[in-house]
Amino acid sequence: MSLSASKLAFAVSVVATGFSNAVFAQALTSEQRTACKEDYAKYCKGTTPGGGRIIACLDKQQLSEGCRKVIDAAKK
What DSSP character marks residue 63? Predict the structure, then answer.
């Protein structure tokens, strides 16, 4: 029975690690946020964060060159 518990604990840790890596990949650096700050305020201020909604909103806009580079890199 403890073998099953250890398998379950291992599976949970693998899933948790996968989710934390996905969240980390979506996090923008301070420099990247600064590049898009004005575009975000102009076009997407009312967009609810999470699920890639802000990046999707920005992607539909006529962005500054620096922000366009950040958004294009985030989509890859």
Answer: -
Alpha-carbon radius of gyration of the chain: 18
Instruction: In whole angstroms, give the CA distance from residue 51 to residue 69.
Output: 20
Which of 68, 70, 63, 72 has the alpha carbon at shortest distance from 41? Answer: 63
Q: State residue 46's pLDDT score.
A: 94
**Could you tell me the residue range of the domain that residue 48 belongs to?**
2-75
**Number of domains composing the chain:** 1
- Model's pTM, two decimal places? 0.60
**Separation between Cα atoms, residue 39 and residue 70, nearest integer Å:** 12
